[in-house]
Amino acid sequence: MIPKVLGNSWWRVRDGNVSFWRDHWLKSRALINSCDISDYPLLKVRECGLQNGWDVDLLHRLVGATKMEEILNCLGEQKEGGDLLIWKPTLNKVFSSKSAWDCVRVRAPKSEWATWIWHSALLKKYSVTIWKALHYSLTVDSRISSLGIPLASRCECCTQGCMEDQDHVLVYGMIAADIWRWVSLQLGMSYDSQRSWRATMELWFRRATHSTQKGTLLALIPIIVTWSLWVWSYKARMEGKHVAVSSLWGSIKAAIAWDVWVHGALLDEKGNLIWAFAKELGYGSNNEAELIALCYGLQYCQDLNIGRVEIELDLLLVVHWLQKGRCGIWYLEDYWKKIQVMVATLEVKIQHIYREGNAGADFLA
Ligand SMILES: [Zn+2]
Question: How far away, in angstroms, is 172 Cα from ligand 1 center?
């Protein structure tokens, strides 16, 4: 590396305490690269000076006429003070190990997926899982047998028990196919049961964009889905827990909401993520979104065996709906019915609160 380090360094000569032959102080390379050292191998630049000017005869004898001219031009700009060693790769001319590393590293071509896989809104566990899948290094049966370890493979997701490979776990298996079909439907993406995991991700990433909330979700959602499916099969295999598709879908939605909320990357102007997500699922107004959020919220309470719930909603209209037991929007009937059932089984108190009053709860959530 020393030639590289020297090649990227340059001396700005002031008092001339640098090697005439070996240091890189001319604009071109060090003199040792273009001239033979005829005499004075340890000569310093300042030793070429006479009382008022440069020892032209000496320079001429050492390097010849052309080089001498270059040297005189360079030394003509000389200022007072100590010599300055300049590191050329950085703008401030100060050496840093980062810039040195950039000089010597071999850059791999950037993965087109990288900006999404390592998106700041994602938990690292998602990123790492996707990265492993991208390199076919998730520990599935087919991977183990490809390493020469014989085993009888039987997936955890299908009743008939299929050979477990990465695509089966992540897209082709019964659970995976159900989830992908559903999530594609929800976000208006095309679904094809024959599409491989890699092709599926590419399809979503192609539609994704950093400029809009929905565009970003189109990249983050398949990542979270992939991670969830991987965890599903892992838990089924290692812990014998076969979570139902509906709960898996619920937890995927919660993961999306949680992830995006915690990292603050996709909050809408009211700072509410579930609204944003519900809106992305095709619901227009805040009233509708809040009703859906309420439905999820009550579901969580039920899942956590919380029996007494106090709900503070900041949308008056929804509070009226709940108090009167009548929902104003026909296409929310499904959610409405679910809420009615849950409200009947839980001890629920509902009241209106101003948005500012909900800030603390929002933060905790
Ligand atoms: Zn299966």
Answer: 7
